[in-house]
Amino acid sequence: MSDPHAPHADASGLEQELLEDQALSAAERYAAFLAAVADSGRFWVAESGEYLLTLFDGDGQELLPAWPSAATARAALAQARAQSPNLAGYAPAPRELAAWRERAAAAMDEAGVGVGAFPDLAMQCAVVAPAQLLEHLDALIAESDADAATEADETDGDAGDDSAGAPAALDLAQAQRALAQKFAKPKGD
């Protein structure tokens, strides 16, 4: 992973870091997924025309694979296509978190379809229920908003500080570690 204290200069820096994160454990990738989705308000699925790619885990549970960026989805799909040519028509498609929350999350929960968060190149991932994913995202967003408000309050008194009023930079590595410890539990527990 890149320097955890360096702010992301642009989206391509975050894309590269997320691509590097594919080598992390499922729990660490889940934390990276949460941080990226909370920050951007979107995630990517695999779509072919009117069809969405779903997978089945070792227990037979259907899941919707979801990636934190188009680049991570492309990389995983390219690897999967090499092993399963029937995936040739699938490409990354963005989903806005707010729209997914309103239109799909409850239906997925009712149907027993989980979310496979940030599948790696072997399509291994953390599996969570849509409602649980939304709880984790809401907690992270609330925490981020509270941190930003606290930092804004602290910088209000610094008239000479150029960063006054600027949003707090998210320390992605620290957030990933905290989220991995807070939310990710091995599937067998």
Automatic annotation (TrEMBL):
<dbReference type="InterPro" id="IPR021284">
    <property type="entry name" value="DUF2750"/>
</dbReference>
<feature type="region of interest" description="Disordered">
    <location>
        <begin position="146"/>
        <end position="170"/>
    </location>
</feature>
<protein>
    <submittedName>
        <fullName>Uncharacterized protein</fullName>
    </submittedName>
</protein>
<feature type="compositionally biased region" description="Acidic residues">
    <location>
        <begin position="146"/>
        <end position="161"/>
    </location>
</feature>
<dbReference type="Pfam" id="PF11042">
    <property type="entry name" value="DUF2750"/>
</dbReference>
